């Protein structure tokens, strides 16, 4: 336990509130330093609790990584689903609406999601399994809409959706790194969408 936790008594939280608090601390760690730093000890230190308490909520590293990944991904997933349902007859508008969900998130959160989506720097079988699950959710959200909009079969729609997803995240990284401005990145992504869709 860190010095701050020893000096300050942690407040009592119910089981669900404590789990949410731990997931917030886990997300902070990942957003600051990547997935490789998240483990039981690091989470206990960040949250100012004992490792035993962390293990009460997450029995192993796999469950902690999975819960943290889904906690980070949930807002984006919900925003994307809303973009799709709000624009059922215009796939380009749905995609453009979903783009802002991800562009407007904090940089660290976006970086953590990019690592999961692209599989970059994960070096963990647990995170690879989570990455595939997140990809499955993304495809489940977008492929039916793409099939309907473009009259494509499952394989063609899946390929097109994944190309668009990776293109967006690539532009997001260029914006993040200051290679292009936000306006330039959005304009380039829009031009790509106009060609692809």
From TrEMBL:
The keyword Manganese does not apply. It comes from the Bacteria. PROSITE patterns: HTH_TETR_2. Keywords: DNA-binding, Transcription, Transcription regulation. Residues 16-76 form the HTH tetR-type domain. InterPro entries: Homeodomain-like_sf, HTH-type_TetR-like_transc_reg, HTH_TetR. Residues 39-58 bind DNA. PANTHER family: HTH-TYPE TRANSCRIPTIONAL REGULATOR BETI (PTHR30055:SF234), HTH-TYPE TRANSCRIPTIONAL REGULATOR RUTR (PTHR30055). This is TetR/AcrR family transcriptional regulator. It comes from Limnobacter profundi. The lineage of its organism: Bacteria, Pseudomonadati, Pseudomonadota, Betaproteobacteria, Burkholderiales.
């Amino acid at each position: 336990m860190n010095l701050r936790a020893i000096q300050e008594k942690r407040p009592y939280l119910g089981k669900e509130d404590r789990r949410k608090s731990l997931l917030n601390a886990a997300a902070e760690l990942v957003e600051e330093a990547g997935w490789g730093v998240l483990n039981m000890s690091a989470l206990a230190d960040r949250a100012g609790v004992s490792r035993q308490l962390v293990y009460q909520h997450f029995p192993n590293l796999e469950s902690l990584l999975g819960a943290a990944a889904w906690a980070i991904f949930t807002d984006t997933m919900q925003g994307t689903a809303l973009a799709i349902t709000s624009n059922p007859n215009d796939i380009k508008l749905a995609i453009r609406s979903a783009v802002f969900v991800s562009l407007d998130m904090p940089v660290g959160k976006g970086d953590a999601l990019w690592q999961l989506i692209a599989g970059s720097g994960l070096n963990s079988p647990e995170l690879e399994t989570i990455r595939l699950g997140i990809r499955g959710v993304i495809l489940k959200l977008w492929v039916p809409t793409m099939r309907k909009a473009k009259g494509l079969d499952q394989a063609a729609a899946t390929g097109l959706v994944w190309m668009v997803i990776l293109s967006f995240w690539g532009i997001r990284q260029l914006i993040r790194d200051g290679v292009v401005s936000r306006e330039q990145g959005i304009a380039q992504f829009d031009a790509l969408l106009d060609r692809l869709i």
